[in-house]
Amino acid sequence: MNFSKLLIQWYLQHKRDLPWRNTQNPYHIWLSEIMLQQTRVAQGMPYFYAFTEAFPTVFDLAKASEEQVLKLWQGLGYYSRARNLHQTAQSIAFGMDGKFPANYAGLLKLKGVGEYTAGAIASFAYNEPVPVVDGNVFRVLARYFDIDLDIASADAKKEFRKLALELMPQDEPAIFNQAIMEFGALQCVPKNPDCGSCVMNHSCAALQKGKVSRLPVKSKKAQAKNRFFNYLVAEDERQDTLIVKRSGKGIWHGLYEFPVIETDAEAQLDAISEQILAENPFGKPIVSISEMHAGSILHKLTHQHLHIRFLKVTIRGVLENGIDRDTLKTFPFPIVIFNFIDNDFSE
């Protein structure tokens, strides 16, 4: 039995019942694919349900404010995906009369849609025979065919796409793409796969050669940069606080945070207190400054490690543009700040 038939047979027996697999609606498929970029299915599922309930159609998503979209996305990370999602919804709703492009080439022109996502939508919604090549697919193909190309290189991506297209049954592109991704997610997992129970174990080249743990080949990531954020959590005589919106390029664009002082290293309380008193972003006298946590919180992003601490800054008088604690929770925050608000800054 050839690779594709064996793969599809395995899929039909083991596939997970996921909501975006029970539809050919390009809107739902697009939502799921954007959400699942660099996100596990278990984490993305509640967000998919929340978005489809809040925004049943692409028109509903397009009409929402960016803050509504970011708030609903809160905790899913990689917030540029949410901003692109919103902008693309507006393009489709207002520029294309709510109709998604019906082929791979057209989908590829949408903002935030790359080769993988365009291939997924084109094959799942329109049954167009185009391959999808994500981390799961790289891993399955590299191991089964013993391919030692560096998957981080552009040349390797072209070779894997070419191979996937050759293997794909032209009359069943959707099920083949779903099958190979699911096989990588459930069976041919990154670490310690159960090769003994694998339906491919008699023909897998990497298994025969003892190379499963060494494939696929991927060049090492650049070392993450350490950054040190000192958040100033003001509290005035009404117990109101102050937040600001992040602008410009960089992490968390469009989300809210407390005023922040970034330092080159972990700062001593005395030193950072002097800086706060000198810069005073609140426009009111500062009564006291104190730690709200014992030490900093480490928050890991893909290319950055953030060392975050929250400093309570007690203010004399009433803050201009102060926000009460109930209203505070309605704004979109990075999840590390929202968790602090929810757990440590409640009344």
UniProtKB/TrEMBL annotation:
NCBIfam families: mutY. Pfam families: HHH, HhH-GPD, NUDIX_4. The lineage of its organism: Bacteria, Pseudomonadati, Bacteroidota, Flavobacteriia, Flavobacteriales. Residues 35-186 form the HhH-GPD domain. Its EC number is 3.2.2.31. Transmembrane segments: none annotated. It comes from Flavobacterium magnum. It catalyses: Hydrolyzes free adenine bases from 7,8-dihydro-8-oxoguanine:adenine mismatched double-stranded DNA, leaving an apurinic site. Binds 1 [4Fe-4S] cluster. Its cofactor is [4Fe-4S] cluster. The keyword Iron applies. Belongs to the Nth/MutY family. One of its GO terms (molecular function) is 8-oxo-7,8-dihydroguanine DNA N-glycosylase activity. GO terms for biological process: base-excision repair; mismatch repair. This is Adenine DNA glycosylase. Keywords: 4Fe-4S, DNA damage, DNA repair, Glycosidase, Hydrolase, Iron, Iron-sulfur, Metal-binding. Adenine glycosylase active on G-A mispairs. MutY also corrects error-prone DNA synthesis past GO lesions which are due to the oxidatively damaged form of guanine: 7,8-dihydro-8-oxoguanine (8-oxo-dGTP). It is an enzyme of class 3 (hydrolase).
